[in-house]
Amino acid sequence: MESVKQEIRQLCEQFRLGGIYPGLDAALQDAEKENTGYAAFTLKLLRAEADHRSRRDEAKRLKTAGLPRGADLDGFDTTVDNGMSAKKMGQLRELNWIDQIFNVVLMGPSGVGKTRIASGLCLDAVKAGYKAYFRTMQDIVNTLRTKDAVPSQNTEYRRLMKANLIVIDDIMLFPLQKEIAVAFFNFINQVYENASIVITTNKAPTEWAKMLDDEVIATALLDRMLYRCEIIRLSGDSYRMKNRKSFFDNQND
Predict the structure, then answer these.
(1) Is residue 4 helix, strand or coil?
(2) What class does CATH assign to 86-241?
(3) Do 233 and 105 meet the contact criterion of CB atoms below 8 Å apart?
(4) What does pTM read for this prediction?
(5) How far apart are CA 19 and CA 57, in angstroms?
(6) Distance CA 210, CA 169 (A)
(7) For the packed helices 38-65 and 114-127, what is the interaxial angle rounded to 10 degrees?
(8) pLDDT-based confidence at 66, cuts 50/70/90?
(9) Residue 241 has pLDDT above 50, yes or no
(10) DSSP letter at 228?
(11) In terms of Cα–Cα distance, which of 249, 131, 116 is closest to 196?
(12) 172-204 pLDDT tens trace
């Protein structure tokens, strides 16, 4: 039996079946105990391999997603009156809008939860099997600037081209040079028909022309972003300021 198991291990390694051999002993014991037939035993091994590959693929997607810490929305407080109701959050987390290639714009001042919501939706998408990526506007700009010269950025660019969901955090936070504004428009123009885009911004769309220094590009960009889009305006006090921490003791001296 040991020689047979050794050969099974070697064949699993050869065919890269990493989910079968680790559970082989348990599967054999269950088969002997339950008098499992050959078909049922084979099915159990194949299910183990399928589960292994599913976990491995999810781990890869999580690694490339680029999510910030604390992205999970399970603990998000929807009782706060900031424009994101429990009903809206539930509908967003169903992710039907990704299949319909709808965009989401999360707009509001700093600290009201835009990035938390966007990254949480990205995490939900990764877990649901989508190719989803969280990037800051600066990340996107760096990729567009260097993709033709830096192999890793070229890989990143091609990865984004095949995405189901792209989150762009803090869009239009800073002005863009004309060359980069054109490159960014071309990027959006290439992906918007095949991928959903979630953006967070503290700038109203009417202010984009000023950040791009080009009303024509801003209009064309908004035309593509807002064609199939849900705009959610968030409000309220900054969570970070309300929960500001200090390294001094709370003493009056």
Answers:
(1) helix
(2) alpha beta
(3) no
(4) 0.79
(5) 13
(6) 19
(7) 150
(8) very high
(9) no
(10) T
(11) 131
(12) 888 888 899 999 999 999 999 999 999 999 888
The better pLDDT of the pair 52, 230 is held by 230
SS (H, E, C) the chain: CHHHHHHHHHHHHHCCCCCCHHHHHHHHHHHHHHCCCHHHHHHHHHHHHHHHHHHHHHHHHHHHHCCCCCCCCCCCCCCCCCCCCHHHHHHHHCCHHHHCCCEEEEECCCCCCHHHHHHHHHHHHHHCCCCEEEEEHHHHHHHHHHCCCCHHHHHHHHHHHCCCEEEEECCCCCCCCHHHHHHHHHHHHHHCCCCEEEEEECCCHHHHHHHHCCHHHHHHHHHHHCCCEEEEECCCCCHHHHCCCCCCCCCCC
pLDDT value, residue 191:
96
The pLDDT of 105-113, averaged and rounded, is 88
Extents of the domains making up the chain: 2-64, 86-241
Whole-angstrom CA distances from 56 to 62, 99, 127, 162 are: 10, 23, 12, 20
